[in-house]
Amino acid sequence: MFLHAGENVTVKKKDIVGIFDIDNTVTPAITKDFLRKAQRDGRISSAGSDLPKSFIITSDGKKQKVIFSHISAKTLTSRAELPLS
Questions:
Q1: DSSP readout, 33-70?
Q2: Strands 64-69 and 44-47, sheet pairing
Q3: Mean pLDDT of the chain
Q4: What is the pLDDT of residues 15-28, one digit of tens each?
Q5: What is the pLDDT of residues 64-82, one digit of tens each?
Q6: Distance (Å, rounded) from C-alpha 11 to C-alpha 80?
Protein backbone atom coordinates (compact mmCIF):
# COMPACT_ATOMS: atom_id res chain seq x y z
CA MET A 1 0.00 0.00 0.00
CA PHE A 2 1.00 3.59 -0.56
CA LEU A 3 0.58 6.86 1.31
CA HIS A 4 -0.12 10.04 -0.67
CA ALA A 5 2.28 12.68 0.71
CA GLY A 6 1.15 15.56 -1.49
CA GLU A 7 1.01 16.54 -5.16
CA ASN A 8 2.37 13.57 -7.13
CA VAL A 9 4.40 12.01 -4.31
CA THR A 10 3.55 8.63 -2.83
CA VAL A 11 5.45 6.59 -0.27
CA LYS A 12 5.34 2.86 0.35
CA LYS A 13 3.78 2.40 3.79
CA LYS A 14 6.24 -0.38 4.63
CA ASP A 15 9.14 2.07 4.09
CA ILE A 16 7.84 4.70 6.55
CA VAL A 17 10.06 5.10 9.61
CA GLY A 18 8.12 8.03 11.05
CA ILE A 19 5.89 11.01 10.34
CA PHE A 20 6.69 14.17 12.26
CA ASP A 21 5.01 17.54 12.82
CA ILE A 22 7.36 20.36 11.79
CA ASP A 23 6.28 22.77 14.53
CA ASN A 24 6.91 20.25 17.30
CA THR A 25 10.11 18.59 16.10
CA VAL A 26 12.44 21.01 14.32
CA THR A 27 13.39 22.90 17.48
CA PRO A 28 15.65 20.26 19.13
CA ALA A 29 19.27 20.46 18.00
CA ILE A 30 19.39 16.74 17.20
CA THR A 31 16.54 17.11 14.70
CA LYS A 32 18.15 20.16 13.10
CA ASP A 33 21.42 18.24 12.77
CA PHE A 34 19.63 15.23 11.25
CA LEU A 35 17.83 17.42 8.68
CA ARG A 36 21.02 19.36 7.85
CA LYS A 37 22.90 16.13 7.21
CA ALA A 38 20.05 14.75 5.10
CA GLN A 39 20.04 17.95 3.04
CA ARG A 40 23.82 17.89 2.63
CA ASP A 41 23.60 14.25 1.48
CA GLY A 42 20.83 15.02 -1.03
CA ARG A 43 18.25 12.88 0.77
CA ILE A 44 15.53 15.55 1.09
CA SER A 45 12.64 16.07 -1.28
CA SER A 46 9.39 17.98 -1.14
CA ALA A 47 5.84 16.86 -1.89
CA GLY A 48 4.71 20.24 -3.18
CA SER A 49 5.63 23.88 -3.10
CA ASP A 50 3.43 24.92 -0.18
CA LEU A 51 4.85 25.61 3.26
CA PRO A 52 5.54 22.19 4.84
CA LYS A 53 3.61 21.11 7.92
CA SER A 54 5.28 17.72 8.37
CA PHE A 55 8.06 15.49 7.22
CA ILE A 56 8.20 11.78 6.56
CA ILE A 57 11.31 9.70 7.09
CA THR A 58 11.50 6.61 4.90
CA SER A 59 13.99 3.79 4.57
CA ASP A 60 14.12 1.06 1.98
CA GLY A 61 16.70 -0.84 4.00
CA LYS A 62 19.61 0.81 2.22
CA LYS A 63 18.96 4.52 2.27
CA GLN A 64 16.93 6.94 4.38
CA LYS A 65 15.01 9.79 2.74
CA VAL A 66 13.17 12.80 4.14
CA ILE A 67 10.06 14.10 2.39
CA PHE A 68 8.54 17.43 3.41
CA SER A 69 4.77 17.59 3.03
CA HIS A 70 2.15 20.34 3.22
CA ILE A 71 -0.24 17.79 4.77
CA SER A 72 -0.34 17.70 8.57
CA ALA A 73 1.33 14.85 10.45
CA LYS A 74 -2.02 13.98 12.05
CA THR A 75 -3.70 13.58 8.66
CA LEU A 76 -0.80 11.58 7.21
CA THR A 77 -0.66 9.20 10.18
CA SER A 78 -4.42 8.76 10.02
CA ARG A 79 -4.20 7.92 6.31
CA ALA A 80 -1.31 5.54 6.91
CA GLU A 81 -2.98 4.07 10.01
CA LEU A 82 0.26 4.57 11.97
CA PRO A 83 0.75 5.81 15.56
CA LEU A 84 1.54 9.54 15.70
CA SER A 85 5.28 10.18 16.27
A1: HHHHHHHHTT-EEEESSSPP-EEEEEE-SS-EEEEEES
A2: parallel
A3: 91
A4: 999 999 999 887 88
A5: 999 999 999 999 999 888 6
A6: 10
Nearest to 1 by CA among 21, 23, 16: 16
Who's near 29: CB < 8 A, 6+ residues apart?
Answer: none
Cβ(55)–Cβ(68) below 8 Å: yes
pTM of the predicted structure, to 2 decimals? 0.88
The dihedral sign for the CA sequence 40, 5, 25, 53:
positive
List strands edge to edge, sheet with 16-21. Answer: 16-21, 54-59, 64-69, 44-47
Q: Report how far residue 45's alpha carbon sits from residue 39's, in angstroms, rounded to the nearest whole number.
A: 9
What's the one-letter identity of residue 35? Answer: L
Q: Are 2 and 13 in contact (CB under 8 A)?
A: yes
Element (H, E) at 29: helix 29-40
